[in-house]
Amino acid sequence: MKEQLLKQSSYFAALTDQELAKIKEIMFTRQYQEGEFIFFEGEVGEGLFFIKSGKVKLTKMIESGKEQILNIFKAGDMFAEVVLFDQGKYPATAVVIDDSEIGVISKEDMEEIMRNYPEITIKILRVMGKRLRRAQERIRNLGLKNTKSRTASILVHLAQEHGWDNKNKTSISLSLSQQDLAGLIGSSRETISRVLSKLKKEDLVDVSREKIVIKDLIGLKKII
């Protein structure tokens, strides 16, 4: 497996080589193709997942029948850790965005690791707290900010999490459709299309089917 990626993970960075070997021992690997489902909302949680390569999105169906994207994860991220603490069902659906290699650790095995290495538990709780804070910000934005401001906020977040700098610009390394962006922001594809056109005219972003390029990150932040 990609040992360096595991060692660089915020969850396992402090572990010794011997301790990392234990993690690798209990982690088994699954291969997924783009568009495949890893689990569905409401299924009993079997464990947590570590992305070795590829990208995954967490989604939830809202009352209108539209898909709400809750989060997008990349290589080195772990997700579905909530089932370790409430012993419940998955609160969302996980869908593969790009062909992915996913490491899986069962609840029982991870609980043993957490008992033996409390620092891992602390790190998992910190990451969960960060994600909860981000979710609360998005809920607040839905109620208090207009679509342009919410779009700018999501683009800044995506640039920070999935972007790479090139000649004073930031390219977002995700294949996102306008419908995907609408799902992240909580709006319609038509509205997002109009907002992106405005941002493009203001020379803040450049949008194509393949990628989004942030031309003026500071300018976007001023809109938020």
UniProtKB/TrEMBL annotation:
Q: What are the record's GO terms for cellular component?
A: cytosol
List all membrane-crossing ranges: none
What domain of life? Bacteria
The alphabetized UniProt keywords are: DNA-binding, Transcription, Transcription regulation
Q: Which Pfam families match?
A: cNMP_binding, HTH_Crp_2
Provide the Cyclic nucleotide-binding domain boundaries. 11-131
Please give one Gene Ontology molecular function term for this protein: DNA binding
Q: Which InterPro entries match?
A: cNMP-bd_dom (IPR000595), cNMP-bd_dom_sf (IPR018490), Env_Response_Regulators (IPR050397), HTH_CRP (IPR012318), RmlC-like_jellyroll (IPR014710), WH-like_DNA-bd_sf (IPR036388), WH_DNA-bd_sf (IPR036390)
Gene3D superfamilies noted in UniProt: Jelly Rolls, Winged helix-like DNA-binding domain superfamily/Winged helix DNA-binding domain
Q: Which residues form the HTH crp-type domain?
A: 145-218
Question: Under what name is this protein listed?
Answer: cAMP-binding protein
Q: What is the lineage of its organism?
A: Bacteria, Bacillati, Bacillota, Clostridia, Halanaerobiales
